[in-house]
Design goal:
Helix content is 46%, strand content 16%. It is an alpha/beta fold. The chain has an eight-stranded mixed sheet. The longest helix has 30 residues. The protein binds phosphoenolpyruvate (PEP) and magnesium ion. Phosphoenolpyruvate binds next to strand 27 and helix 31.
C-alpha cells in the first residue's frame, strides 16, 4: 500500500508552488457552494449549506466528484495530485474545531467517510464509520469517554465496515463471528453484548482481516483514510451503483462520480442520553404534514437504516427526551423552510447534543408527492408552478396502482409496517437472485427477506413487492420500494425466513418458495394466496393539482376509448374528449362477431348489406351512449381500420376445428346408427334416448358447421396477404366495400341526430384511417355528404360534426397541404407512422431486434414507446406546417401510444399540436406532462 503519496500526510505534504497552481479538490463545509451538487454531491452540498445557515453539523469537508472522476480515469489508481495535501490541511481544520487529534493515542479524532453523488442513490455506494481507530487510539478513546463498552462497539463496527468496504472481506465472515459470540453469550440483541464480548469480536475480526488479506489491519490512520477515500470512489463503479444508474436512467449529465464527505464522528451510542434517527419533515407515505421519523436510543445510524433493530416512532422522544424533541421539531421547520421541499434527514444525539448529519429531498411515493405539492403551495411555501414541476408526470402512474378489494374475507397471516403503499400478489422467494431468476422468466414474485441490503437491488427490480421481517419504515427495504413505487410491508416480525430451506415460518404455518401471498403496503397486512384488487380513486389533492395543470397547459388531453364504459372511466381521469374510438373493437363483442363474420363471408353486396343492417342499430346505440357520456366534448370515431381477416380465425385454428368436426360427425353418425339398431332389436327404451348431437338432427347440424368452417377457410385463403399491415386495410377497405363505411357513417350521424334532437350537445368527428392521397378523402367525404343530407332531411335538423383524417402514412405527411384542403382535422397515428418511417414491423420489432439495438446503442429508445423526434418527428413537423398553410385553423392531434408519453408530449407541444390522446389511465400523466411542456417552454426553444 505504501507509495510515496500514501505516507503520513502530515509529514509528507508537498509545498504548493506558485508556478503550478493545484486544482482545488477539497472544500470545507464552511466554504463549499451548497448549490453545486454536481461538484460536491447532494450530501456534500447540503452539509455545506446546513453549516452555512447555522445548523449544528459536525465539522468536515467534501472531496469533489472531479477528484473521483480523475481518480477513476487514472490507470494506476492514485489520487489526483494535490488531493492528499488538501485532505491533510482540512483534517487539521477539523482537529481545531473539535479539539481532538487524528491518530492521537490520548485524544483521538474519529471521522466518517461517506459517499454522495449529485443524485441520491440510497445505499448504493459505500460509507465507513469510526475511522481513525487502532489499538492505540482505542485506548485514548476509552480514556476520553470512560466508556469501554462503547469504544469496543465502535471498534468492531469500524473493522467490519472497513474490512468489507475497503478491503473486500466478505461480510459473512464477520457476521458468523458476531452471531457466534452472541449465541455463546446467550444474548438476542446487540445491546446485550458485554464489553468482553465486543473485545472478543474486535479481536476475531482483526484476525479475519489478516487471514483474508494476508496483511494486518492497517493501523496508520492516514493510510486508513486514503484507502477509505479510494474505496468510496471505487464504489461509484461497483455493480450495485451501475445497476441502479441503469435502472433509473441516471446519465453522466445528471450525476457523474461520487464525492467523499469526511465528517467528525458524533456518537448516538454513548449511553441512554444518546440516540440516532432518521426523519422526514412530512409523512413520506401519505404526504400528511406531520413529523415522521424513527430513532433508536444508544445506537449508531446504520442500525436504523439497516433495519437491524426495530426503531421507535419519533413522537416517543417527547417522553424520553422532551427538550431534544423540541429541538428536533425546530430543526424540521428550519430545514423545510430553507429547502422549500420535504426533507429526509439523519440526526444524532450525543450526550444530549443534537447534530444534523445529512439532509436530502425526501423520496416519496406519488400519493405523498401530490399531497405535499398541493399543501405546500397552499401554505405558500412554494408557488403553483413549483408544485406542478415537483412531480415527474410518470409518477402519477403509481396512483393507478390497485388496492385490495375491501370486501375480501381473508384473514391476514401476519402484519408488519405499511412501508410503501399499493397491493401486490406473487410467489414467495427468499433471496434476490431467485427473485431475479423467476421474475425474468415471467413469474410474479414477492421478495421475502429478514431484512434487505443494497446488494438485493436486482431482486427489487424483479419483484411485485417486498416483505421483510425486520426494520422500520425508514429501513432500506422501505426506502427503496417507495422510490420504485412498489408495495412494501416491513418489519413483519412474526415471519421467520430460512433462506437455505427456501421457506418461511409464520407460527405453525410454513410458506415454501413458489407459494402465493398477497401484501398490502397500505395496511401492512400479509395474506396467503391471491386476493382480488380494485382500482384506485382520485384524491382531492390530485384533482386540484391536475386542475392547476389544465390551467397552464396548452395541449388538450383526450382519451382513446372504444366503449361507453371506457369513455366514462376516461372522463373520471379528466379526459377532455375522445381522440380515438377504434370502431373495430366494437365488432369483437361475442354477440356481434357472428354478424361481422357473416358480413365478411358475404359473396354479394346484397348479402353484405343484410349483415350490415344488423350491425347498424348496434353501432348506433354504442355511438349514442359514448357521445352522450362525453357531451359536450368531442368524440373522434375512426372508421374501420384493420384488415378484415382479423375477425376470422386463423387458418391453423380452422383446420384443427374441421378435423374435430369431422371426427364428431363420424362419432355422431355411429351413435345414431347404434340407436337405430337398438330400436330394431326392441332393446330401446325411454332411458336410452339419443340427445343432440347423437341423432339425425345433430349430424345435420355438424354438417352445416363443417360447410361454414370450410367457407371461412376459403375466405381466409382469399383474404391472405403477405403483408397485411401494409395491405387491404383502412380507407382502402372502405373504398373497396363502401357499404361498410357507409353503415358506420350512418350509425355515427344518426346517433348524433338523435342526441341533437334530445338536446344533448354532442360533437362527433369522423376520422378516416390510413389515408395517403387526397382523392381517397374526397371519395369518403362524398359518402358522408350524401348520408348527412339524407339524415338532415329526415330529421329536419342541421348536423354539426367534423371530418378529418389520420396521418399515419409517410405520403400523408409529405402531401399534408393537399390533404388539409379536404378536412378539418389531422390526427397523427404515430404507431403506424413509426412503423412506416422506420420500415420496422410494429408487431415484431420489439421482440426481435429492438432489444439488441438498444444494447448496441444503435437506438437509444424504443421508437414505439418514445416518439422518434429526429425522424418521425420531422415528418410530423412538415405535416403540421404544410397542413396549416392551406388550412390555418386545422386542428391537429396525436392518437398513437406516444400521446401518453411525457417526452413525446413535450415534443407535440413544441410542434403546436392542439391535443394529445392516450389510454384512459395515462390521461392524468398526460395532463401533467402537458403543463410541464408549457412551463418548460423557455428551456426548450431549440425546435
Ligand atoms: C396509430 O397507428 O398510431 C393508431 C392510433 O392506430 P392503430 O394503433 O389502431 O393502428
Ligand atoms: Mg394506425
Amino acid at each position: 500500500m505504501s507509495t510515496p503519496d500514501t505516507l503520513d500526510l502530515r509529514k509528507e505534504a508537498p509545498p504548493v508552488t506558485k508556478e503550478k497552481p493545484v486544482k482545488k479538490f477539497v472544500f470545507a463545509f464552511k466554504e463549499g457552494d451548497g448549490k453545486n451538487k454536481q461538484l460536491l454531491g447532494g450530501k456534500g452540498a447540503n452539509l455545506c449549506e446546513m453549516t452555512q445557515i447555522g445548523l449544528n453539523v459536525p465539522p468536515g469537508f467534501v472531496i469533489s466528484t472531479e477528484a473521483c472522476l480523475s481518480y477513476l480515469a487514472n490507470a494506476n489508481h492514485s489520487l489526483p495530485g494535490g488531493v492528499l495535501t488538501q485532505v491533510t490541511e482540512h483534517m487539521q481544520e477539523i482537529e481545531k474545531a473539535t479539539g481532538k487529534i487524528f491518530g492521537d493515542p490520548k485524544n483521538p479524532l474519529l471521522v466518517s467517510v461517506r459517499s454522495g453523488s449529485a443524485l441520491s442513490m440510497p445505499g448504493m455506494m459505500d460509507t465507513i464509520l469510526n475511522l481513525g481507530l487502532n489499538q492505540q487510539t482505542l485506548k485514548g478513546l476509552i480514556a476520553q469517554t470512560g466508556n469501554e463498552r462503547f469504544c469496543y462497539d465502535a471498534y468492531r463496527r469500524f473493522i467490519q465496515l472497513f474490512g468489507k468496504v475497503a478491503l473486500s472481506v466478505p461480510d459473512e465472515k464477520f457476521e458468523k463471528i458476531f452471531e457466534d459470540v452472541k449465541r455463546k453469550a446467550g444474548v438476542k440483541l446487540d445491546i446485550g453484548l458485554s464489553t468482553e464480548n465486543l473485545r472478543e469480536i474486535s479481536e476475531r475480526f482483526l484476525l479475519v482481516v489478516k487471514e483474508y488479506t494476508g496483511q494486518p489491519f492497517p493501523a496508520d490512520v492516514f493510510q486508513q483514510l486514503e484507502i477509505a477515500i479510494k474505496a468510496v470512489f471505487n464504489s461509484w463503479m461497483g455493480k450495485r451503483a451501475i445497476d441502479y444508474r441503469r435502472e433509473f436512467n441516471i446519465t453522466p449529465q445528471m450525476a457523474n462520480g461520487t464525492a467523499v464527505n469526511v465528517v467528525a464522528m458524533v456518537f448516538g451510542n454513548m449511553g441512554n442520553d444518546s440516540a440516532t434517527g432518521v426523519a422526514f419533515t412530512r409523512d413520506p407515505g401519505t404526504g400528511e404534514n406531520i413529523f415522521f421519523g424513527e430513532y433508536l436510543v444508544n445506537a449508531q445510524g446504520e442500525d436504523v437504516v439497516a433495519g437491524i433493530r426495530t426503531p421507535k416512532a419519533v413522537l416517543q422522544l417527547t417522553e424520553e427526551m422532551p427538550d431534544l424533541y423540541r429541538q428536533l421539531e425546530e430543526l424540521r421547520d428550519k430545514l423545510e423552510s430553507h429547502y422549500k421541499e420535504v426533507q429526509d434527514f439523519e440526526f444524532t444525539i450525543e450526550k444530549g447534543v443534537l447534530y444534523c448529519l445529512q439532509t436530502r429531498n425526501g423520496k416519496m411515493n406519488a400519493t405523498a408527492m401530490v399531497r405535499t405539492s398541493v399543501e405546500m403551495a397552499k401554505e405558500k411555501l412554494i408557488s403553483k408552478t413549483e408544485a406542478l414541476l415537483r412531480l415527474k408526470p410518470e409518477m402519477l402512474e403509481q396512483l393507478l396502482h390497485p388496492r385490495l378489494d375491501s370486501f375480501h374475507k381473508s384473514e391476514p397471516l401476519a402484519q408488519g409496517l405499511p412501508a410503501s403503499p399499493g397491493a401486490a400478489s406473487g410467489q414467495c422467494v427468499f433471496d434476490a437472485d431467485r427473485a431475479e431468476l423467476l421474475g425474468r422468466s415471467g413469474h410474479k414474485v414477492i421478495l421475502v427477506r429478514e431484512e434487505t441490503k443494497p446488494e438485493d437491488i436486482h431482486g427489487f427490480f424483479a419483484s411485485q413487492g417486498i416483505l421483510t421481517s425486520r426494520g422500520g419504515k425508514t429501513s432500506h427495504a422501505a426506502v427503496v420500494a417507495r422510490g420504485m413505487g412498489k408495495p412494501c410491508v416491513a418489519g413483519a416480525e412474526g415471519i421467520h425466513v430460512d433462506v437455505k430451506l427456501r421457506q418461511a415460518k409464520i407460527g405453525e404455518r410454513t410458506l415454501h418458495e413458489g407459494d402465493y401471498i398477497t401484501i398490502d403496503g397500505g395496511t401492512g397486512y400479509v395474506y396467503q394466496g391471491v386476493i382480488p384488487t380494485v382500482e384506485p380513486t382520485f384524491s382531492d389533492e390530485l384533482k386540484t393539482l391536475l386542475q392547476w395543470a389544465d390551467e397552464v397547459a396548452q395541449l388538450k388531453v383526450m382519451a382513446n376509448a372504444d366503449t361507453p364504459e371506457s369513455a366514462q372511466k376516461a372522463l373520471s381521469y379528466g379526459a377532455m374528449g375522445i381522440g380515438l374510438c377504434r370502431t373495430e373493437r366494437m365488432f369483437n363483442a361475442p354477440d356481434r362477431l357472428p354478424i361481422v363474420v357473416e358480413m365478411i363471408l358475404a359473396n354479394t353486396e346484397e348479402e353484405r348489406l343484410t349483415a350490415l343492417n344488423q350491425l347498424l342499430p348496434i353501432q348506433k346505440q354504442d355511438f349514442k351512449e359514448i357521445l352522450t357520456v362525453m357531451a359536450p366534448r368531442p368524440v373522434t370515431v375512426r372508421l374501420l381500420d384493420p384488415p378484415i381477416h382479423e375477425f376470422l380465425p386463423t387458418e391453423d385454428e380452422l383446420r384443427e376445428e374441421l378435423v374435430h368436426l369431422r371426427h364428431l360427425k363420424d362419432t355422431a353418425s355411429g351413435v345414431t346408427n347404434l340407436f337405430n339398431s337398438l330400436r330394431l332389436l326392441h332393446a330401446y327404451d325411454e332411458h336410452t334416448k339419443a340427445e343432440l348431437p347423437f341423432n339425425e338432427k345433430g349430424v345435420e347440424l355438424i354438417d352445416q358447421a363443417i360447410v361454414k368452417k370450410e367457407l371461412m377457410l376459403k375466405k381466409v385463403h382469399d383474404l391472405f396477404e403477405v403483408n397485411p399491415m401494409l395491405g387491404h386495410r383502412g380507407v382502402r377497405l372502405g373504398l373497396t366495400y363502401p357499404e361498410i363505411y357507409k353503415m358506420q357513417i350512418q350509425a355515427i350521424l344518426e346517433a348524433a341526430a338523435e342526441c341533437q334532437k334530445a338536446k344533448v350537445d354532442v360533437r362527433p368527428e369522423i376520422m378516416v384511417p390510413q389515408v395517403c392521397n387526397a382523392e381517397e378523402l374526397r371519395q369518403v367525404r362524398a359518402y358522408v355528404d350524401e348520408i348527412k343530407q339524407k339524415i338532415e332531411k329526415e330529421n329536419g335538423i342541421k348536423l354539426t360534426f367534423k371530418f378529418g383524417t389520420m396521418i399515419e402514412v409517410v405520403r400523408a405527411c409529405v402531401t399534408a397541404d393537399e390533404l388539409a384542403k379536404e378536412v378539418e382535422f389531422f390526427s397523427f397515428g404515430t404507431n403506424d407512422l413509426t412503423q412506416a418511417t422506420f420500415s420496422f414491423s410494429r408487431e415484431d420489432a420489439e421482440n426481435k431486434f429492438l432489444p439488441l439495438y438498444a444494447e448496441k446503442n444503435i437506438l437509444h429508445d424504443n421508437p414505439f414507446e418514445i416518439l422518434d423526434t429526429n425522424g418521425v418527428g420531422k415528418l410530423m413537423r412538415f405535416a403540421v406546417e404544410w397542413g396549416r398553410k392551406t388550412t390555418p385553423e386545422l386542428k391537429v392531434g396525436i392518437c398513437g401510444e406516444h400521446g401518453g408519453q411525457p417526452d413525446s408530449i413535450r415534443f407535440c407541444h413544441q410542434l403546436g399540436l392542439t391535443y394529445v390522446s392516450c389510454s384512459g389511465p395515462r390521461v392524468p400523466v398526460a395532463r401533467l406532462a402537458a403543463a410541464h411542456a408549457k412551463l418548460g417552454e423557455s428551456k426548450n426553444s431549440s425546435l
